[in-house]
UniProtKB/TrEMBL annotation:
Spans annotated as SAW: 488-562
Protein name stated in the entry: Scarecrow-like protein 1
InterPro entries documented for this protein: TF_GRAS
Family that this chain belongs to: Belongs to the GRAS family.
Transmembrane segments: none
Length: 562
């Protein structure tokens, strides 16, 4: 069977105030969890039509219309996953099944079954639970039979992806679905918020049937087109469903967040950074600290281990345009994995070329260097640090992706910090989300996710209308992706491992860094910028770090270190 949906060649995106166009995705991602050797995930960028990326400082042609590959279960496989299950719910089910079989064998109740058939079923279950599924199957035509195709129509993994990605949700908002959270049921109808927490509790207690029943009820009550409480509930439902199905790893890989769809468009992550003031101001605080460190320096070398599309440095270079104290040479070294460095769309070399053109227009002496390496393989010699230059290292929303001591004995997170400390930088800037999703158990992690993303979804209401294609794509491609990973993945598969500001302070101190407080100019500049936004956005200085939040919830923290 095929899940292909043809793109409408006449469709076009509405004009946007941002330097990108983003059309609604039009494909779904089919796969089946417990069909050994039959799960497929064939993915590519989302289909859309764009008018173009108009950045005044860049010379470029109009954006092209890209016709991309769709998710097709009948096509040749480009990627395959059948990860070992790490869900406590699934693990407990197998234990219960084993115990049930043992009990039945010793009970007075005789159960008749075919021994060969039972052995085959047990082998299939063992394969489904233990297979790591990293192989790439080059020919599945003999395996994908009519029975499996019929099952695919109703499998939970496909339904989860449809619920996340469909631009036209079948569920409509209604007064019934407002997110009330009574202290107890007492026979009363439970609101979506209470249902969400009841479902999370059922999963934590391995009550799979109860959790699945609640999920079915929630899907009838919440919608991704509604108010912020509706939207966060809709995506949390799918995160909980993925937890039960052990499908979080595949969904996380399928959703495209950091990759730009075309040469002249922003990735969904960069759109988020543009439309959410907390992220935008977090970057600006880091830039202010970098500018302060540049004063009086002949050569400034910035190393960035996750430069994305370079938006942070567009602002920095523009700041330096009319600065009489700008350095004689600004060097930027960007690190990215070998495949991404050479990608024709949004690759690190393309980012470098854009920054070089901008620096030329701004009359800022500039040099860009791309390092094609995975972060864990980077050595000091690869970074080309030179005597006499002022070295600055920027960690913006990167470190939480690296596994720490709770995941691996290697502890890549602290290892990178110690290596950077050995480079003796003049300044290290750190920008991170302020949430505790790293080592907390599932139920506490769910509550943290609910609190954090509820505030984030609510804040987007103050910047973009609810029907905005940009906003809906950010919510689908970035926020839903993060939610699924935090809730439905464990071990090394869970890469969205945020920590609170206090934990980051401890890590930086253990690596040998000391705080470099933001001066009054930086703080006054941030306060001035914040006045142009909704008054629910807040800013405060705490322990030499700058906290940006919405209402009572801190979302992003910026800090500087020496």
């Amino acid at each position: 069977m095929s899940f292909i949906r043809q793109a409408d060649p006449s469709a076009s995106c509405a004009e946007s105030p941002y330097i990108h166009k983003f059309g609604p995705p039009g494909s779904v991602f089919p796969a089946q969890r417990f069909a050994s050797g039959k799960e497929l995930l064939h993915h590519g960028p989302q289909p859309y039509k764009a008018e173009g990326y108009r950045q005044s400082d860049f010379n470029g042609t109009a954006a092209h219309v890209f016709q991309n590959s769709f998710y097709n279960t009948d096509s040749h496989v480009e990627s395959h996953f059948n990860e070992a299950t790490c869900s406590p719910a699934i693990s407990n089910v197998s234990q219960q099944n084993s115990q049930s079989l043992s009990d039945n064998q010793t009970s007075d109740l005789e159960v008749e079954f075919d021994e060969d058939e039972m052995r085959l079923k047990l082998q299939e279950l063992e394969h489904a639970l233990l297979d790591d599924g990293d192989e790439i199957f080059s020919d599945l035509s003999g395996i994908i039979d009519d029975e499996w195709n019929d099952n695919m129509k109703n499998n939970d993994w496909t339904n989860t992806m449809k619920n996340i990605m469909s631009p036209d949700s079948p569920k409509e908002s209604s007064p019934e679905s407002s997110l009330c959270c009574p202290d107890s049921n007492n026979g009363e109808t439970r609101g979506p918020k209470q249902l969400l927490f009841d479902c999370a509790e059922a999963i934590s207690e391995y009550s799979v049937d109860e959790a699945q029943s609640i999920i079915a009820e929630l899907r009838r009550k919440v919608a991704i087109q509604g108010d912020p409480s509706q939207r966060i509930a809709a995506y949390l439902v799918e995160g909980l469903a993925a937890t039960i199905q052990s499908s979080g790893k595949g969904i996380y890989r399928a959703l495209r967040c950091k990759e730009a769809p075309t040469l002249y468009q922003l990735s969904a992550m960069q759109i988020l950074f543009e439309i959410c003031p907390c992220f935008r101001l977090g970057f600006m605080a880091a830039n202010y600290a970098i500018l302060e460190a540049c004063k009086g320096e002949e050569v400034v070398h910035i190393i960035d281990f996750d430069i994305n599309q370079g938006s942070q440095y567009i602002t920095l270079i523009q700041f330096l345009r009319n600065n009489s104290n700008k350095p004689r040479l600004l060097r930027i070294t960007g690190v990215d994995d070998p495949e991404s460095v050479h990608r024709a769309v949004g690759g690190l070399k393309v980012v470098g070329q854009r920054l070089e053109k901008l620096a030329e227009d701004c009359e800022v002496p500039f040099e860009f260097r791309a390092v094609a390496s995975n972060i864990e393989d980077v050595t000091p010699g690869m970074l080309d640090c030179r005597p006499g230059e002022a070295l600055i290292v920027n960690f913006a929303f990167l470190l939480h992706h690296l596994p720490d001591e709770s995941v691996s004995m290697v502890n890549e997170r602290d290892q990178l910090l110690r290596m950077v400390k050995g480079l003796r930088p003049k300044l290290v800037t750190l920008v991170e989300q302020d949430a505790n999703t790293n080592t907390t158990p599932f139920l506490a992690r769910f509550r943290e996710v609910y609190d954090y993303y509820s505030a984030l979804f609510d804040s987007l209401d103050a910047t973009l209308p609810r029907e905005s294609p940009d906003r809906m794509n950010v919510e689908r491609q970035c926020l839903a992706r993060e939610i699924v990973n935090i809730l439905a993945c464990e071990g090394s598969d869970r890469v969205e491992r945020y920590e609170v500001a206090g934990k980051w302070r401890a890590r930086m101190a253990m690596a040998g860094f000391v705080p470099s407080p933001f001066n009054s100019n930086v703080i006054n500049g941030i306060k001035s910028l914040l006045k142009s936004y909704c008054d629910k956005y807040r800013f405060e200085k705490v322990h030499d770090g700058l906290h940006f939040g919405w209402g009572d919830k801190t979302l992003v923290v910026s800090s500087a270190w020496q």
